[in-house]
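Appendix B. Extra example for self-study. Work through it before the problem class; the solution is given directly after the inputs so you can check yourself.
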Amino acid sequence: MIDNRIDYYPTHEHEGIKFRRGHTLPFGATMVANGVNFSVYSSSATSCTLVLFDRGADQPFAEIPFPDEFRIGNVYSMIVFELDYERLEYGYRMDGPFNPAAGHRFNSSVILSDPYAKVISGRDTWLAKPNWDNVYPYRSRLAFEDFDWEHDHPLETPVEDLVIYEMHVRGFTQHPSSKVKNPGTFSAIRAKIPYLKELGINCIELLPIYEFDEWENSRQSPTTGETLVNYWGYSTVNFFSPKAGYAATGKFGMQVDELKTLIKELHKNGIEVMLDVVFNHTAEGDHRGPTISFRGIDNKTYYMLTPEGYYFNFSGTGNTLNCNNPVVRNMVLDCLRYWASEYHIDGFRFDLAAILGRAQDGSPLSNPPLLESLAYDPILAKCKLVAEAWDAGGLYQVGSFPAYGRWAEWNGKYRDNVRKFLKSDPGEVGGMIQRIMGSPDLYHQRGPTASINFITCHDGFSLYDLFAYNEKHNEANGENNNDGANDNNSWNCGWEGETDDPKINFLRHKQIKNALAILMVSQGIPMVLMGDEVGRTQKGNNNTYCQDNELNWFDWSQLDTNADLYNFARNMINFRRQHPVLRSPTHFQYWDSVGSGYPDISFHGTKAWNCDRSPSSRSFAFLLCGDHAKQGIVKDSMVYVAMNMYWNGLHFELPALPPEKKWYLFANTDMPSPADICENGKESLLDNQHEFLVGARSVVVLIGK
Amino acid sequence: MNVTSSTVEGITVIEASGSIDSKTASEFERNAIAAIQGKSAAIINLSNVDFLSSAGLRVLLMIYRQIKAQNGKVVLVGTSEEILDIMANTGFLSFFITAETLEEGINTLKAA
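Solution. Structure tokens for the complete assembly:
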């Protein structure tokens, strides 16, 4: 064992601080024997100074200019000795030209965060009032990277078997009804794992957990007077650091251990963790925004700039990360590798991912190097990669996102088709048939696993509101209801907002059940929005990015008040988990490749084997033959689903089963709870084996066994 | 911070007091690791410890790993509510048995 090396000892001294030449790689601050290795890149800085603080101190205890001999290429590195790993906060000053037209915005009076910092302090407790005069508000810190994972390993669940639950760390348990010890934190999610397991999901997708500043753009709501904040967190301060304010132990700087402990425990329970990652822009905004890190370290490397030196705004938030610049591309890659290896993250969902396929001048690339690098990366090889395949600059790539056989997409067409079908729009049956099959019209080559199916997500109406509001009601956001999408494809079932009318309320619940049933019987990967399983409402607000209150918080008392919804959602999700025929890794072929006497999938209507796809049709049925499950490798029951979005009930003739099998009823959304669904395995034998009356706006699920 | 060790009914008991943080963790580690050499059980009495930082938690885990290598167990005694909460949130607690009193800790180890 080497316990002594020359580089364990200093060669230089500045104001009593001992240091020596450092190692250029890795970038960031790395604990080494006796000290810390600092390394930072800037293409155009003329000099760089390392600034060192004791935790929370107003002023630095040392500023050490990098001697020019320590610079190799454009990388400044040094090892500083005898630092307190735990209390150290560090940053940089970069000197260089301020010449926006040439892309440079250096300002050596600003202390800058390290783009490769692994922990950021400054917003350690959610919404704790910051010191607005802090000379260095977002401070880089060191992380211990010695977590004891024991036997944990990313789960590598086959992608077609996933049921994703999109959730917000704080919103999940912040409501007092959650009755957890540390509401709104990673730790509290851990306390609720039994709930997630019972619900049946096997992957949580967390809204951004990279460090962001909830105070960004904070203001008063004109309608409620409440403080509006950056609640969703789509505004990254640092890509490598978990949000301290989401950790119960953030005030002690222990968020890294807390998050890893959550992930380890989720994995023990068979639940994967996917992160919603925002690589399209940063929290620095446009030329009027704050200088936190990237702008001051190397503006023209990190941002897409117009020829005049202003910021391209493909993200709709002020700036655009220059992610096909080779240096930035490497940072994104380093970042994802870090999260995959250091945090055992199972997958990533890329916000506004179409931006990642744009060239440095903003034009779309046919073969984007970043997307290709991610797809072929050895460390990310088993990670799920999911694209939000559009951006705010008008690039819409659903079905055409450069996939390299790896990328899946949020299927926006699935959402739109299903919403229109549910509100009885004509002309949707043809599209629905594609959506049910995993959208082969969009993903013919890529298979159903390219399709993340969703009806609702954080952005837009909740599922309850989809059937309670025709129009958005975003007044509380303080933008005169001008923010948020207008094409919601929602239907209020006869009354805008809350009502006592039992018929309307029954219909709303039925529509929620219809939606959940359709989502769970579609090929592809279903994603459920947190709270939709209990009818969570945002009171018609379809853009709750700034609302840190009950509009966004999961109200656990709804488990009782909307017990019928929860019961239906739980059983429906578990039905999908129990029936492999619903989770084909490849597209169905419309024919019988296993000799069962039935094609893998067939479409029906009021007459068996006869599906009305005409524009006026609002109903159809399909039959999955269980012998074809997972390409014929496993055996399953026959599954028959009838969907009638017509406003009258319709008799559906049932396709004949093989003589040894009978039809059993699993779910019928037209029935009041608890007759609407049953526990898996408790399906009831149908008296009439030839025909089923499917009620108005109802979904019926049968199994043949 | 102060560390002492003793043997009670054949079991090594390490007692610390004050704050175990980056400034004091190495001293705690040195004393504790010396005291448990070759031992297959240990009690760490934290009754008089008011704060454990990340560095302090890591020393506890090192003690656990050494004892675990001998197929043994580590009991924490008298841990404050706040430290227990931090240890639970950061996952460190799952490696240890906890007891309220030294006597209870000794009985637990003897029964194991």
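Self-check: Residues 54-69 of chain B form the longest helix (16 residues). If your reasoning did not lead you there, revisit section 3.
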